[in-house]
Amino acid sequence: MEHIQMAQPEERLIQTYECEGCRRTVTQKELLIPRGPRKGEKIVADYGCKCEDIRLAQEAEENREKLRTRKMREFFDYYSLINDSLKTATLENYQSTSQELAQAKQQVAEYIREFDGKKNLLLNGSYGTGKSHLSVSITKALMKQGKECLFLSLPKLLTKIKETYNSNDITEDELLKVIQRVDLLVLDDIGAEHHTEWSNTKLFEIFDDRSGKATIYTTNLNSKELRAQINERNFSRMMENTEIIKMNGRDYRRKEF
Which segments does the entry list as coiled coil (predicted)? Predict the structure, then answer.
């Protein structure tokens, strides 16, 4: 069998140097093209430089991060049970109506700065003082840091779980797995749900699945009322590694008046 010999370009070493970009040793050569339309043409080629590979790898990583961020926002929008009035809530546009609420805002800012994925918060106080607003603000700030967050109104969540029993779109197991895996879960308005043995059982499942992971709770009830509503076992689990932030004051939603 006849073997075809491919002509190799003539080459001349120009220099060897260290690339300032990738810090690799680069060999620069002058090549003489031996055949084809560009026969006789001289070109300069660098061997050993990894700058282009590094640039492409960085672009690929940036694209992966953008895709992950987009998916997180889609995930948040799909699963979160959040009122339209809270969709624009941020820490910056929260306006406290009392010294206690100003202190609550400061504590929330510290929680965001020091977030470790384990510490819980309980925002407790009267109606309309901005507990939900601050909770949503935390999820938005942490999502900017690449964390997966979920905001769920507990009464709406329990309704959603019941709806899965007669739906092919999403199963209860899928919903609970999402709740379990996120970096931060907000359970809003605990105590506003209809008090039943079933609701307390589901609440315990959620608390148990979230053990060791950061969860934020909001409630209008005091400790005695909350114990009576969710039972002693759930109350005890809810208080594990939980900092309480008191939020009493004028109704935040009616501050203009």
Answer: 87-121
